[in-house]
Structures are given as structure tokens and as C-alpha cells.
Design a protein that fits this description.
α4 (102-111) links the parallel β3 (94-99) and β4 (116-121). The chain has helices at residues 17-26, 45-62, 76-88, 102-111, 224-230, 239-255, 257-278, 303-315, 340-361; strands spanning 6-7, 68-73, 94-99, 116-121, 143-146, 148-149, 154-155, 167-170, 187-191, 202-207, 295-298, 318-319, 330-333. The chain has two domains: 17-254, Type I PLP-dependent aspartate aminotransferase-like (Major domain) (Aspartate Aminotransferase, domain 2, 3-Layer(aba) Sandwich), CATH 3.40.640; 257-361, Aspartate Aminotransferase, domain 1, CATH 3.90.1150. The chain is an alpha/beta fold and 363 residues long. The strands form four sheets. A seven-stranded mixed beta sheet has the order 2-10-9-8-5-3-4, covered by helices on one side.
Length: 363
């Protein structure tokens, strides 16, 4: 297939062409150094300039208060499932996990190796529970949420009421996609490969009051204190991924910042949900107040039609629409870099496919 496709993958995900072209233009010779970012020392002044600018841009775009530290860590969100309890949960004490899907389950499993996990479960896979302070164990050290569920297609439209207990949020698929107040959270973590750049680096934003509380047997590389005291340069970080994250943050700023991006994401999701809700062939079963703006699962009337839909869509350059293996069907991911044309093109194809199905049914 010649030319670029519309890539609806849940991650690694599509990146803006302008960012890719910037990478391409600097690939062999970054800022007249005569070398690629992939080749330069992480101790060099050039790379230190990159990581410092990346943090400054992130702070500016998200309005991160001064008391919060920003880390660039390897291992993805999956490593954070272990790092969070190792740093915030004393051995055999309690943390609360709100269970809303596959990724929260994995996080709970890791936390249970460190202490006691109080589980608050979503009533259905299609909704986010309303949680008040009375629902939470009074001695819980933190409340963990998965802000946006990529597989189930759900998101938090309101945060749990936790009182003075800090909220820890996995924002891998929603960071920088909507307006939030960082001060509402004790710690935020996010894999970059959805909204922030390529795979390989995870962003952690932590209230400094939560740093330095790791268990005595916590490995050095799993302690937030290690990254805080070394400015994320204790060992060789994922330099190239951090560089692309910096370019993505520059791109977001050029678009008008989170306010503009959030409005665009709302428009994309609203357009798509409106079409699905009006269609007689496609279905999205997520409760309306829990619907994700980033990941929208949907099905037709049969598994056979789902398979045919995915095949025909790929033939027209609409790729990676297959739903997660645990739920089937289709899934369209509309991250920050997905242009509105990617949504309208998908809707146009869906209309055409629906028309063909209806005509053949009446033939």
C-alpha cells in the first residue's frame, strides 16, 4: 500500500506527520552535532537540554505545580503496577484499587504482593462506579484508578471522593487529551506510546511528599527517590523516546495546548458516537456517562460481519481496527494525533459497509 494509512491502533499509536518529518530531518545530524540523538551520550549537554525542555513543556501544558516531580522511566505502565506499591504501600498495609477492567486487574495483582488490596469493583464492564469516601478503607494509603480503559472503552468523568487519601492514576491512554488538575492527584503515570510519542518511556508525575517512602528492600531502580535525586539520569534513559516526546509536546503547544486538543478530541468522539447511536448495524454498549474519548469499541450484528468489516477497512487504508482479543469486535482509537479526517473517513466507510450489508440482506 502506497502512502500513509489511518492507524486506529490502541498503541503504539499514530504520530503527527510533522513530528515524524522533524525526526527524519534530524535523524543523522541533531543540531549540528554530527550525530543522531540515538548516538549521543545521555550525559551530554545536548541530551540534557532535550530532557530539560521535555519536562518544562510537560509542566507548562499540564500546569504541574512546583511541588510535583517529573520522571522519565523505562518499563511501561506495567512496571508502574509494581513501583507504585513498592514506593507508597508499606508491607502488609492497605491500598484501595478501583477495578474497572483488564489493566486495573493487573495493577491489583502486583499490589497484592506488597500489601492488602481493597477492591472496589465496577458494577459492569461498561461503566465507571461512583465512589465516595465512605466506600474507601479509612487506613488506605492511596486509591488507584485507571483513568481511561483502552479495552473496555470507559473513562472517569468524575474522580472518586477520597478525602485526604491520594489518588494514583494510570493515565497511559488519556494523558494530555483533556483538561485535568494535577493537584487532584498524588501520582500520575503514563506510557508514552499512545498520546505522547513512541514506546519506551513512561512519564511519572509525583507529589514530592510521596517520594522517599519506599520499602527498605525496594530495588534501587524501582525507587522513585532514585529518579528524583538524579533528574531521571541515574542510568541511561530511553534517550530517543524522550526526544520524540519533546517533539510531541512542542507539537501540542503549537496546536494551542490542552484546551484546543481537548475540544478537538471531544469533537472527534462525539461525531463517532453520534453515528454509532443512529446506526442500526453498529453498537457501542458503554454507559453514556462512562464513554471514552480515546478508545471506542463497537460491534456489528455478528462476529462474521465484524471480521469482514476489519478486512475491508484495511483494504481501504483504515488499519488496526480489530478489538482486543478479550472482547472482540472493533475498536477505534482517536488519540491526540488522529486528525478529524481519520474520523470522518472511518464513518464514511462504515456508512458504505452498512449500506452494502442491508442491500445484500434484502437481495
Amino acid at each position: 500500500m502506497s502512502g500513509r494509512v489511518f492507524n486506529y491502533s490502541a498503541g503504539p499509536a499514530t504520530l503527527p506527520v510533522s513530528v515524524l518529518e522533524k525526526v527524519q530531518g534530524e535523524l543523522l545530524n541533531f543540531h549540528n552535532t554530527g550525530m543522531s540523538v540515538m548516538e549521543m551520550s545521555h550525559r551530554s549537554k545536548e541530551f540534557k537540554g532535550i530532557i530539560i525542555e521535555a519536562e518544562q513543556l510537560l509542566r507548562e501544558l499540564m500546569g504541574i505545580p512546583d511541588r510535583y516531580k517529573v520522571f522519565f522511566i523505562q518499563g511501561g505502565a506495567s512496571l508502574q503496577f509494581s513501583m507504585v506499591p513498592l514506593n507508597l504501600l508499606p508491607r502488609n498495609e492497605t491500598a484501595t484499587y478501583i477495578h474497572t477492567g483488564t489493566w486495573s486487574k493487573k495493577a491489583m495483582q502486583e499490589a497484592s504482593k506488597q500489601g492488602t488490596v481493597q477492591v472496589i469493583k465496577s458494577p459492569t464492564a461498561n461503566s465507571i462506579p461512583h465512589v465516595t469516601q465512605q466506600d474507601i478503607h479509612q487506613h488506605s494509603h492511596y486509591v488507584h484508578i485507571t483513568h481511561n480503559n483502552t479495552i473496555e472503552g470507559t473513562r472517569y468523568s468524575e474522580l472518586p471522593e477520597t478525602g485526604s487519601i491520594p489518588i494514583v492514576s494510570d493515565m497511559s491512554s488519556s494523558i494530555l487529551s483533556e483538561r485535568i488538575h494535577v493537584a487532584d492527584y498524588g501520582l500520575i503515570y503514563a506510557g508514552a506510546q499512545k498520546n505522547l510519542g513512541p514506546a519506551g518511556v513512561t512519564i511519572v508525575i509525583a507529589d514530592e511528599g510521596l517520594i522517599g517512602k519506599q520499602s527498605e528492600d525496594c530495588p534501587t531502580m524501582l525507587a522513585y527517590q532514585t529518579y528524583s535525586s538524579s533528574d531521571s539520569l541515574y542510568n541511561t534513559p530511553p534517550t530517543f523516546s524522550i526526544y520524540v516526546v519533546k517533539l510531541m509536546l512542542q507539537w501540542m503547544k503549537e496546536q494551542g495546548g490542552i484546551s484546543t486538543i481537548a475540544d478537538a478530541n471531544y469533537e472527534k468522539a462525539s461525531l463517532f458516537y453520534k453515528y454509532i447511536d443512529e446506526s442500526s448495524l453498529y453498537h457501542n454498549r458503554v454507559d453514556s456517562n462512562s464513554r471514552s474519548f480515546m478508545n471506542i469499541p463497537f460491534t456489528t450484528d455478528s462476529e462474521e460481519l465484524d471480521t469482514l468489516f476489519i478486512k475491508k477497512a484495511a483494504e481501504t487504508g483504515l488499519v488496526n481496527l480489530k478489538g482486543h482479543r478479550s472482547v472482540g469486535g472493533m475498536r477505534a482509537s482517536f488519540y491526540n494525533a488522529m486528525p478529524i479526517d481519520g474520523v470522518t473517513s472511518l464513518i464514511d466507510f462504515m456508512k458504505e459497509f452498512e449500506g452494502t450489508v442491508r442491500r445484500e440482506a434484502h437481495a
